[in-house]
Amino acid sequence: MGPFPFNDRPPVRPGQAVDLTHTAPGPDNATLSWQPIKIEGENGVVDLAKFYKGKGDCSAFAVATLESPVARPAQVGVGSDDTLTVWVNGKELYKFNDNRGYSPDVARFDVELKKGKNQFMVKCGNGGGPWEFSVAVTGLADYAFLKGPSTGGFDPDKFKAAAMKGQGKPDKGKALFFDLKGLACSKCHVVGGQGGAIGPELSGIGARYPREELVTSVLYPSARIFSGYETVTVATADGRVLSGLIKTDNADGLEIQDAEGKKTQIPKADIEDRKNSDVSLMPNGIVEGITPQDFADLIAYLETLKDAAANQAKPGGQ
């Protein structure tokens, strides 16, 4: 929405839900409304000069909603020509108040995304000439956890070492697996006819894979994705970004299921972009809240699951 004089406040308060039918007074008694804008190129550039030709000493506001399947840390990379302010969920996290040329990653800042919808609001000002900006957010695949021990005190190597000793207690691991207030593995996985069918059935997992494979699959979910359970990320025409498993895919569109089991229908006409992801729907760091001995117990329980008759997918498309 724009253009506005440089010092005008946002047409909505950052953090409040945005009504895209809302209008606001503009210069010369104009009435301004929210307009959809297509991003351009691999950097997702928004070229405001195309919409507000010849405008200087003014600013425009943009909003977008990012839907995250889990609460997670992320980094935001920004670029602009000229000024740029970025609010995330109502909190101002970045401000540049001078003139510069556009570069897609001129600055970075950290953000804590919440599970569900996250609102990004941008104010980009122009002193004259080119007028553009971009905002990019690191995805789940960029977790430092995927690359090694985290900086928060969690050491996956310690958990692996405890499990590889083979001294876990399966009965305690079973309790952890089915504890809906704890790991809640059974919310997504079926064992012996019990549990949720979001992820692959695990009734015969212990007969199919050795201990080290089981350990790796739990510590690093994205390193061992079962065939048929790959995640797809879909950008929609109304600015949403949805991730989940494909339940149906036909000429009418997609139906995807998120980590909570919620299914969303996306008409084909609403799909702006679609990409297969190499990131598992199972969140990284799921065992950070338990002890290495608890983890050893969980792996010991998975090793007891020998029902080879269970209909299971295989990781890596095997």
Characterise this structure.
With 318 residues, this protein is an alpha+beta fold. It has 5 helices and 16 strands. Strands 1-5-10-7-8 form a 5-stranded antiparallel beta sheet, with no helix packed on it. Strands 15-14-13-12-16 form a 5-stranded antiparallel beta sheet, with no helix packed on it. A hairpin with a 4-residue loop joins β12 and β13 (241-250). The chain is elongated. The termini are far apart. The relative contact order is 0.15. Mean pLDDT is 83; it is low at 142-152 and 309-318.
Beta-sheet strand percentage? Answer: 25-35%
- The shape is elongated
Helix vs. strand class: alpha+beta
**C-alpha-based Rg, rounded:** 23 Å
Main pleated sheet: 5 strands, antiparallel
Distance between the termini: 50 Å
Number of helical regions? 5
Question: SSE order in H/E notation?
Answer: EEEEEEEEEEEHHHHEEEEEH
Helix content: 10-25%
Low-confidence runs: 142-152, 309-318
Output the strand order for the largest sheet: 1-5-10-7-8
Let me know the number of strands: 16
Output mean pLDDT: 83
